[in-house]
Amino acid sequence: MQSQEEYMRGLKQWLHDTEDVPLEEMAEFFTRRLGDYEEHMSFWAESYRLFAEVLPPGCRKILDLGCGTGLELDQIWQKDPEIEVTGVDLCRDMLDKLSDKHPDRHFTAVCQDYFQYDPGREQWDAAISFESLHHFLPERKRELYRKICRSVKAGGVFILGDYIACCEEEEQLLRAGYWKRRERSALPEDVFVHFDIPLTLEHEKELLREAGFAIEHVLDGDAVIIIGRKGK
Ligand SMILES: C[S@@+](CC[C@H](N)C(=O)[O-])C[C@H]1O[C@@H](n2cnc3c(N)ncnc32)[C@H](O)[C@@H]1O
Questions:
Q1: What is the DSSP track for 180-192?
Q2: For 130, 144, 184, 212, which has the most beta carbons within 10 A of its beta carbon?
């Protein structure tokens, strides 16, 4: 097992080595990698299994933000094939792959930016998101989490599985790397780019609490899974 010190040394080296690699637009990034996406993500297999396990029993209707090809849904539907899912994702090709894998499930694909999507009020037993929100700054996530909280039913949950920074230094280094690359990039400011800018667990929990979720549980595995519950 790598120590935090070794991890941070590796991260700094990676930031240095990739300094001149151009940023890619988000949906294009995933379209280009669609062929080996699922194999690449198999590293998180245990986290996907855990993620499905913590979904509270009795959830009938769930909203998945950044569902991609649905690796978390593969596990969730294995447990309960009747669950109705609305999956929001920017990348049409990822959504098409998901729909092709699961033609018999109750699935609605929404090809849209989840910051723009209107999830309605008190609609969902659970909102979920796996490995998507670490691409965004806290200012954006703050509003999104509020919107998610309004959209889940009283007593419902938001389950967030994501890449979490191991310390403030990691959060700051990646954020600085992000801005440096954005400044050099030819891509317009409002275009989403694929670059990881995870928050620390404390910062992520703070945003969720501010939005109205009580933090019920945190599972610290390959991906950190945070379960926030909306009050009744
Ligand atoms: C690493 S993939 C994770 C997909 C899936 N949840 C999984 O774990 O396999 C991140 C996904 O988030 C989507 N995404 C990123 N930003 C988004 C946004 N603003 N709105 C909707 N989807 C977004 C990407 O298109 C991509 O499919």
A1: HHHHH-SS-TTS-
A2: 130
* CA atoms lying within 13 Å on the CB side of residue 38: 13
Instruction: Answer whether 114 contacts ligand 1 (Cβ < 6 A).
Output: yes
From 23, 25, 26, 140, the mutation candidate for ligand 1 (largest count of ligand atoms within 8 A of CB) is 26
Query: Looking at domain 22-230, what is its CATH homologous superfamily?
Result: Vaccinia Virus protein VP39 (3.40.50.150)
Within 13 A of 204's CA, how many CA atoms are on the CB side? Answer: 28
> Best substitution site from 24, 30, 115, 132 to test ligand 1's pocket, by max atoms within 8 Å of Cβ?
132
Domain ranges of the chain: 22-230
Residues 6+ apart with CB under 8 A from 192: 25, 26, 27, 90, 113, 135
Is the CB of 44 inside a 6 Å radius of any atom of ligand 1? no
Instruction: Give pLDDT tens digits for 151-205.
Output: 999 999 999 999 999 999 999 999 999 999 999 998 998 999 999 999 999 999 9
Residue type, 109: A
Q: In what order do the strands lie in the sheet with 61-65?
A: 107-111, 84-89, 61-65, 124-130, 152-162, 224-230, 213-220
SS3 of residue 209 by DSSP: helix
The whole-chain average pLDDT of the chain stands at 96
pLDDT tens readout for residues 82-124: 999 999 999 999 999 999 999 999 999 999 999 999 999 999 9
Q: Name the nearest CA neighbour of 89 among 112, 57, 70, 61.
A: 112
SS3 18: coil
